[in-house]
Design brief:
- By secondary structure, this protein is an alpha+beta fold.
- The chain contains 2 helices and 8 strands, in the order H-E-E-E-E-E-H-E-E-E.
- The strands form 2 sheets. It has a 4-stranded antiparallel β-sheet with strand order 2-1-8-7, with no helix packed on it. A 4-stranded antiparallel β-sheet has the order 3-4-5-6.
- Strand 4 and strand 5 form a beta hairpin.
């Protein structure tokens, strides 16, 4: 009886290990790199700017000012985007670095600024033809 329960536990452990390895691979391996990304900048939940990163010839910066006066300086490079300075107290948005894939967004909570990357082949959330939970 003890051999069956040990064998079952080993099989369940192997199965869970395989599921977690596949999940990590899915999260960490960048996809859709050939077509490039579009950076969508949202402030207070509204899309304020979309930048196709594959069309950026050289680096440039611009400033995003929030409704309460909080400012973020955003730098756009060919293939990446990030916040280089902010007047928020913790500067977590600056420490997040530059985005070059769509795994995680850059967020600045005091300014309510979110920078998300999406593959260029996908429509933005504000497009009429975007896939939603009902049509997906």
């Amino acid at each position: 009886m003890k051999k069956k329960s040990t064998r079952g536990a080993v099989l369940i452990g192997i199965f869970l290990l395989m599921v977690s390895a596949v999940s990590l691979w899915y999260i960490l391996v960048p996809r859709e790199r050939a077509s490039g990304y579009i950076a969508d900048l949202y402030q207070e939940g509204k899309l304020i700017l979309s930048i196709p990163l594959s069309a950026v010839p050289e680096a440039y910066t611009f400033t995003v000012t929030g409704s309460d006066g909080c400012k973020n300086q955003v730098e756009v490079r060919p293939g990446s985007i990030g916040i280089v300075s902010a007047d928020c107290p913790d500067k977590l948005c600056v420490r997040q670095g530059f985005l070059s894939d769509s795994v995680l967004p850059v967020t600045c909570l005091p300014n309510r600024l979110v920078i998300r990357l999406r593959p260029a082949a996908l429509p933005s959330e504000n497009d009429q033809e975007a896939v939603d939970i009902i049509t997906y």
